[in-house]
Write a structure and sequence with these properties.
The structure holds 2 protein chains of 2 kinds. By secondary structure, chain A is an all-alpha fold. Chain A has one domain. Chain A is built from 8 helices and 2 strands. Chain A is elongated, with a radius of gyration of 19 Å. Chain B is mainly alpha-helical. Chain B has 10 helices and 2 strands, in the order H-H-H-H-H-H-H-H-E-H-E-H. Chain B has a two-stranded antiparallel ribbon with strand order 1-2. The longest helix of chain B has 29 residues. In chain B, about 40% of the residues are buried. Classes of the chains: A mainly alpha, B mainly alpha. At the A-B interface, helix 3, helix 5 and helix 8 of A face helix 3, helix 5 and helix 6 of B.
Chain lengths: ~190, ~190
């Protein structure tokens, strides 16, 4: 969901900075150091494609049924640009968050990064609290807003459920493996420097 | 368009490798990683968004009117996987272009690298020429294509956004070339 994925990118940037803090504390270059490549790989190949997949497949669900126009990108340039904007936002916010945490480490503000990790996670989960059970409806904007709702429950819509589980499984596994790899690589680099 | 996206990605990767040739010639891991990171950034910040735009805005045209399924992606998981395809289509050719360029530079074959990307660029022009019927007759959906409901390539809103994105892409590639070249020219 867009409302979850955007703060999620911020949280991911803070978490990965936290995992690589030993290296970042001794690295003066903010944009061209050895870890920026892997971080770029993560946001562009592991994080953003998942959000884009759900937006392309279930645009109304991905937007928490806020906008109808998001369902019709064909021959609507502003809507097609919105898809790019979403993709950009996930990558740029993730990177900006990582660079921001890096500069905080360079200033010795380690505690602020820990607080921002928690803030990021809370912001990511907040839409589930503010608009509960929106995620459990599968359908179009019109189906969701009709009275009574014409959407189908997530757990009885196999086409959505299985693909959501598959893509989230990929995302979670990729994030864990990446996090462990980044931690090891950053420790190795910090020991060599 | 699908047919030219792969050579375009290869050209971009090879041009960036050429720009960073002084860094790549050293074989230094840190410098190589730095140029590779720029190629990667170019792929996800410049190439991918352009492909996403055309695939979402004019899906049938972007896929050269090859497939009907592009009209009905919503709610179809296996078709929504095209999100991953779009990203792969921009990343893999750009990184292939970069790595092939890096290998040629390491073997002191800079001239061969330049011939390679010039040939790729000419190939793009040849593809556009031979697919001109598809290229210059725009139907957003396959159904429109089947019913011969076309607008001209020069009509808006298609043309203006095509122009903006084309200038954006090639302009950024030229800018990227000079940025990388200047960054490593004193090595």
């Amino acid at each position: 969901m867009i409302q979850v994925d955007i703060p999620g990118a911020f949280a991911a940037g803070q978490i990965f900075a936290f995992l690589s803090k030993e290296y970042l504390k001794n690295e003066e270059h903010k944009l061209t150091h050895r870890l920026m490549g892997p971080v770029g790989w993560y946001f562009s190949l592991m994080y953003a494609p998942v959000g884009l997949f759900l937006l392309i497949g279930w645009p109304a669900w991905e937007g928490m049924f806020w906008w109808k126009w998001v369902e019709e990108p064909a021959f609507h340039p502003p809507t097609a640009f919105f898809y790019i904007g979403f993709y950009f936002a996930m990558i740029l916010i993730g990177h900006a968050s990582y660079v921001f945490a890096h500069s905080l480490y360079r200033k010795g503000e380690d505690k602020t990064v820990k607080i921002l990790v928690i803030v990021g996670v809370v912001l990511t989960l907040l839409p589930f609290v503010l608009w509960p059970f929106t995620w459990s409806h599968v359908g179009t904007y019109d189906q969701y807003h009709s009275v009574p709702k014409a959407t189908t429950p997530m757990f009885s819509t196999p086409s959505f459920l299985y693909s959501w589980m598959a893509v989230m499984g990929y995302f979670v596994m990729a994030s864990i493996v990446f996090g462990i790899g980044l931690r090891k690589f950053s420790l190795k680099l910090s020991q060599h420097s | 368009m699908l047919l030219i996206d792969i050579p375009v990605g290869i050209v971009a990767g090879q041009v960036i490798a050429d720009a960073g040739r002084r860094a790549l010639q050293t074989g230094n891991k840190e410098l190589t990683s730095s140029v590779r990171h720029i190629a990667l950034t170019f792929a996800y910040l410049i190439t991918t968004p352009v492909i996403i735009y055309f695939f979402m805005g004019w899906p049938a045209w972007e896929t050269n009117y090859f497939w009907k399924w592009v009209d009905n992606i919503k709610g179809m998981p296996h078709l929504a996987m095209s999100a991953f395809m779009i990203i792969a289509m921009s990343f893999i050719p750009t990184m292939l272009g970069f790595e092939s360029g890096r290998l040629l530079i390491r073997k002191n074959q800079v001239k061969a690298l330049r011939i390679s990307y010039i040939c790729m660029f000419l190939l793009i022009l040849v593809i556009v020429y031979f697919s001109r019927e598809m290229t210059f007759n725009i139907a957003a959906l396959y159904a429109d294509y089947e019913n011969k409901i076309f607008v001209s390539f020069w009509n808006n809103p298609f043309f203006i956004y095509w122009l903006i994105l084309t200038v954006f892409f090639w302009g950024t590639l030229i800018g990227c070339y000079f940025y990388v070249y200047n960054k490593f020219k004193y090595l």
